Amino acid sequence: MLTLMVEPSLQLRQFDRSHASALFQVIQSNRNHLRLWISWIDGIHSQQDAEAYILRSLSGFAGRGEAHFGIWNGPALVGSVTVERLDEQNHSAEIGYWLAQSHTGKGIMTKAVRTLIDYLFMELRLHRIEIRCEKENRASQAVPLRLGFRLEGQLRQAYLKQGSYVDICIYGLLAADWSTIH
């Protein structure tokens, strides 16, 4: 499985079956915090559900369409960062992420996303990366802004969340932009 070093005590490790227990535990202990922004959290009710999620992500990786990484702070799983909708023809992808509430506000997500961006631009030779965030999720929007992404637009009522449609902001970053700011 792929591991990306963020710093000595912080790693991105591609999820595998052995991570199911840790994934379920971090979701379970952060369920109320995460469900504010992530609808699929309500589908994880057991360690078996977490394992099924991981197996689906591995299938997506095998199909070269996505990759799901756990964010490990020392021995503890504290969140996730994913590559979604990897488009080899157009050399683009989308990044998504979440973090345990006790680890927010410490710069962990910005460091994790920066490391993943380096990998996507340098190793996979992507041309473009997008991050989509709910309009109301200011903490999530701060990550792409800190990393030099540009707000490219807003999709009105684009996602159905808990029975209501919400607006989504789209942030984009080109490889050429990254090379000049990083």
From TrEMBL:
Pfam families: Acetyltransf_3. One of its GO terms (cellular component) is cytoplasm. GO terms for molecular function: protein N-terminal-serine acetyltransferase activity; protein-N-terminal-alanine acetyltransferase activity. Signal peptide: none annotated. Residues 10-172 form the N-acetyltransferase domain. This is Ribosomal-protein-serine acetyltransferase.
